């Protein structure tokens, strides 16, 4: 759910002297958690085959990748990162081309289960397939992921992201079975749609990423290439991502905390095998890349 006004985690910028990186906050959410609550993450060669990967061999980051996320506005490509998670539609063609020319990669945001009013194709979705508004976001609505037109439009979005050079996509809002969507969507529906979307991503040469819950990760880890975890170290222990770790698939992870808590949080995330970042819980301006800590 990335929009200029809807992203919560909007900028993990270059490391400062104390090992901190900028992390500007704004209203909104990056990922809708499986329980429907706001999570800490909303709203990433070029061409039809994506950047740096093929249908059989998409780009998968190494465990020690230095990655940054910014889903609100244009990314500063001067940042020290091998991998960006960004909204490709908000970037300039020159910046995306420069990243590819430098051999760097970017994963791209896609709201797979909801309709964002600001997207240029928003008016193409049939009214019958547009459901309830997301909590606190009346301009963003759940979609009936069983609908053939919804799937056709999402397939077009996947093609566009591949053309923009995206190396992978972790689709947001796939746990439609657990949300108040306005439709009678089951876990079977959610699993079927997630598998369908992963197939589209792989066919376009891009990696497919998955955010929990366990009902999805326990079934879908063989289909998806990496996990995207949000703020679970102090809660569930991030058990829903264990299948990815056991299969030696990377988990990109954002935890909430401050500079004082960062070493402990980073150590916990690293112990789980995650490639982690720590963000200020209030998102008032600072984050820590765990790769910058000893």
Q: Can you walk through the features of this model?
A:
- By secondary structure, this protein is of the alpha/beta class.
- It has a single domain (20-292), classed as Alpha-Beta Barrel (TIM Barrel), CATH 3.20.20.
- The chain has helices at residues 93-101, 148-163, 187-203, 214-220, 242-246, 262-271; strands spanning 20-24, 67-70, 83-86, 105-108, 114-116, 130-134, 137-143, 168-169, 207-210, 226-230, 251-256, 275-279, 284-289.
- Strands 1-13-12-11-10-9-8 form a 7-stranded mixed sheet. The protein has a 3-stranded parallel sheet with strand order 2-3-4, covered by helices on one side.
- Helix 4 (214-220) links the parallel strand 9 (207-210) and strand 10.
- The longest helix has 17 residues, at 187-203.
- The protein is globular.
- It starts with 19 loop residues before the first strand and ends in a 5-residue tail after the last strand.
- The model is unreliable at 1-20 and 22-48 (pLDDT under 50).
Throw out a few tags for this protein:
alpha/beta, TIM Barrel, seven-stranded mixed sheet, three-stranded parallel sheet, 6 helices, 22% helix, disordered N terminus
Strand content: 15-25%
Q: Strand count, sense and closure of the main sheet? A: 7 strands, mixed
What's the N-to-C terminus distance? Answer: 33 Å
Compute the gyration radius: what is it?
Answer: 17 Å
Please list the strands of the largest sheet in the order they lie side by side: 1-13-12-11-10-9-8
CATH topology descriptor: TIM Barrel
CATH architecture: Alpha-Beta Barrel
Mean pLDDT over all positions:
82
Number of strand segments? 13
Specify the helix fraction band. Answer: 10-25%
Going by CATH, what is the homologous superfamily?
Answer: Aldolase class I
Structural class: alpha/beta
Oligomer: single chain
Number of helices: 6
The level-1 CATH class = Alpha Beta
List segments where confidence is low: pLDDT < 50 over at least 5 consecutive residues: 1-20, 22-48
Q: How many discrete structural domains?
A: 1
Order of helices and strands, N to C? EEEHEEEEHEHEHEHEHEE
């Amino acid at each position: 759910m990335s929009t200029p006004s809807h992203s919560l985690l909007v900028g993990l910028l270059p490391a400062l002297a104390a090992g901190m990186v900028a992390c500007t906050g704004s209203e909104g959410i990056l990922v809708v958690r499986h329980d429907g609550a706001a999570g800490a993450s909303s709203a990433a060669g070029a061409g039809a085959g994506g950047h740096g990967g093929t249908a059989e061999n998409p780009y998968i980051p190494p465990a020690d990748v230095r990655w940054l996320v910014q889903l609100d506005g244009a990314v500063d490509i001067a940042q020290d990162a091998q991998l960006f998670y960004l909204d490709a539609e908000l970037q300039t063609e020159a910046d995306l081309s420069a990243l590819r020319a430098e051999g760097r990669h970017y994963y791209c945001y896609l709201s797979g289960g909801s309709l964002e009013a600001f997207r240029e194709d928003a008016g193409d979705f049939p009214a019958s397939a547009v459901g309830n508004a997301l909590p606190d976001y009346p301009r963003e609505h759940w979609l009936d992921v069983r609908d053939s037109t919804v799937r056709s439009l999402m397939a077009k979005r996947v093609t566009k992201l591949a053309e923009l050079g995206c190396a992978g996509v972790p689709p947001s809002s796939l746990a439609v079975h657990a949300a108040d969507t306005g439709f009678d969507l089951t876990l079977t529906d959610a699993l079927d749609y997630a598998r369908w979307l992963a197939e589209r991503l792989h066919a376009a040469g891009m990696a497919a990423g998955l955010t929990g819950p366990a009902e999805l990760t326990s079934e879908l880890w063989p289909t998806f290439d990496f996990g995207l975890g949000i703020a679970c170290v102090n809660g569930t222990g991030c058990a829903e991502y264990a299948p990815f770790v056991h299969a030696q698939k990377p988990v990109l992870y954002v935890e909430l905390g401050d500079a004082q808590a960062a070493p402990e949080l980073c150590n916990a995330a690293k112990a789980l095998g995650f490639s982690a970042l720590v963000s200020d819980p209030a998102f008032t301006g600072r984050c820590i890349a765990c790769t910058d800590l000893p």
